Amino acid sequence: MTNPGSTLLAVHLDRSSMLRPLLPALRTGLADLLDAHAAEPGELQVVLSTGTDLTRQLPDGSHPPAVPVSAAEARAALPARLRALDGPDLRIGAARLLDAVGDELAARDETDRPERVVVLLVGEAAVGDTTEARERITHQQAEYAWEFGLVDITSGGIPAARRSVPADAAEVGAEQAGTAEGESEGHAGAVALAEAPDPTAAAARFGVPASATITAGPGAEGVTAALAAASSFVSRARAAAPRGPVEGFSADERAAADVADTRPGWRRLLRIA
Q1: For residue 194, which of 203, 186, 205, 182 has the smallest C-alpha distance?
Q2: What share of the chain in percent tops pLDDT 70?
Q3: Alpha helices in the chain (DSSP H)
Q4: Distances 158 to 24, 124, 125, 153, 154 between C-alpha atoms, Å
Q5: Domain 3-270 has CATH 1.10.10
Q6: Alpha carbon distances (Å) from 72 to 35, 43, 175
Q7: Distance between first and last Cα of the chain
């Protein structure tokens, strides 16, 4: 029997160099999310990973453990400025976050484990082979009813029309495409073709439901809107019963997150905010 009414929120924020111009908006949006959830009723613990928090190697060869804290403590621990890092990208950070949180919960008594585990992944979903992250996400969804949300940041570095999708993930994306509100038709194959922001490809790459995936940017205002929508999604997930349905992102939320990058071309080229 788990601890009724309690939630563990695990967040990984991608700080890879492609996202450098959007890091101020990402930090502000994440801070607002933590502030909002600190004020909501119900017991909440947070594991927050930004960049190398959980992926760096310790002297003994292991990685840092997940250390749940209150939302207010997580907010206070946020650096005043997020600096871009060479790595890890979203897929590596996500896989390590899930391993660390899984280990932390496995060490607890059953009665001390949260009733709900909600995972929010924020970053550029188009980069790299996501097989390890996708396998972990699929396992935690099926075995323990963890709820996942994905904010796919479009930095402008990889056009949507060229975002590769593994063959097996493409099949999942095609199945999900018919269920998510306001989404385009899914395309199976090695390449996902999308003229407009489409969460289906990103969802398929990570194994997250397309309804729980939102594409943000490349303008900073879109990132801000997407994280506000993600905060609402987390609220709905916290309120839902384990394995109960959680309403995904609305068409209005998706439209608000789809904001063009209006910076001059030279600033985009140099990745300057």
Answers
A1: 186
A2: 80
A3: 23-39, 71-77, 90-106, 131-144, 167-177, 199-206, 220-239, 251-257, 265-270
A4: 20, 9, 10, 10, 8
A5: no
A6: 7, 12, 39
A7: 48
> How many whole angstroms from its chain centre is CA 198?
16
Phi, psi of 131, rounded to the nearest 5 degrees? -55, -50
pLDDT band at 199 (very low <50, low <70, confident <90, very high): confident
User: Rounded to the nearest 10 degrees, what angle do helices 131-144 and 90-106 cross at?
Assistant: 30
Distances (CA, A) of 36 to 30, 124, 224: 10, 24, 14
Nearest Cα neighbor of 52 from 104, 13, 17, 19 is: 13
> Per-domain residue ranges for the chain?
3-270
Q: At residue 37, does pLDDT exceed 90? A: yes
Rounded to whole angstroms, the Cα distance separating 2 from 112 reads 6
* Distance of alpha carbon 201 from alpha carbon 134, whole angstroms: 13
The answer to whether 205 and 166 are in contact (CB under 8 A) is yes
Q: What is the pLDDT of residues 86-111, one digit of tens each?
A: 878 899 999 999 999 999 999 999 99
- Provide the H-helix boundaries in 128-271: 131-144, 167-177, 199-206, 220-239, 251-257, 265-270
Q: Are 186 and 174 in contact (CB under 8 A)?
A: yes
